[in-house]
């Protein structure tokens, strides 16, 4: 069991017994049906379960700070975890809403950075009349500093409401020198890839990574509805702050954001024969460098809701 720090009067646990004690402590803060509780997830990894008074629910693994499930009041899960996902802390969790930080894609450090490969800790939880919320924290450590030698704090607030899931990511430079980063929420939506579409991107500048990811083709999106007829890996620069996503399964999801300046659509098609038909990725991203001086912060929000 990994060491997971839980502050603000919560326990710190590094064994199954301490996990059970922390689970009871969380449960005491919530009613029997709503709030935030600790549970044992896949691979015996700790996860948080957030339940709103309207019975919407989200699951968040502390490893990677990864939301792996968002069930609306009907019980339907709108996120997707790939069948090849592993929960062993050797690889990041493949699915849900993984973090890409402090780098999106390939670059000077490992693919998509280290935010999805580290343990996050709980710093706050809240239960309100209409939602349940938790705030996670990630700080630099030996693992991150070995590849990116800066002190930082990342706060990630997740709120489950009535048929909605919202997140707020705040990155603060706690170092004595400036740094820059890029980031994204690599959201996997459960979908019929053959029937899914995204509206709101018409007119955006595109960087199409098909057929050569290393040499993307610049263009402009001309379609009202972008579909997934085959392999799709495309960046949309200066994307609008609201997109409409039809998952092809009868659900229309509104994707709103603040300060996520770009969007990425991805489906691997036959490169993932076992599952490509069952999901598409619609990602909010900040692909240009964010430059922070010591003490400065950058914040971005995402709101997913059923229309």
UniProtKB/TrEMBL annotation:
<dbReference type="GO" id="GO:0005737">
    <property type="term" value="C:cytoplasm"/>
</dbReference>
<protein>
    <recommendedName>
        <fullName>glucose-6-phosphate 1-epimerase</fullName>
        <ecNumber>5.1.3.15</ecNumber>
    </recommendedName>
</protein>
<dbReference type="GO" id="GO:0047938">
    <property type="term" value="F:glucose-6-phosphate 1-epimerase activity"/>
</dbReference>
<comment type="similarity">
    <text>Belongs to the glucose-6-phosphate 1-epimerase family.</text>
</comment>
<dbReference type="InterPro" id="IPR008183">
    <property type="entry name" value="Aldose_1/G6P_1-epimerase"/>
</dbReference>
<dbReference type="GO" id="GO:0005975">
    <property type="term" value="P:carbohydrate metabolic process"/>
</dbReference>
<keyword id="KW-0413">Isomerase</keyword>
<dbReference type="InterPro" id="IPR025532">
    <property type="entry name" value="G6P_1-epimerase"/>
</dbReference>
<dbReference type="Pfam" id="PF01263">
    <property type="entry name" value="Aldose_epim"/>
</dbReference>
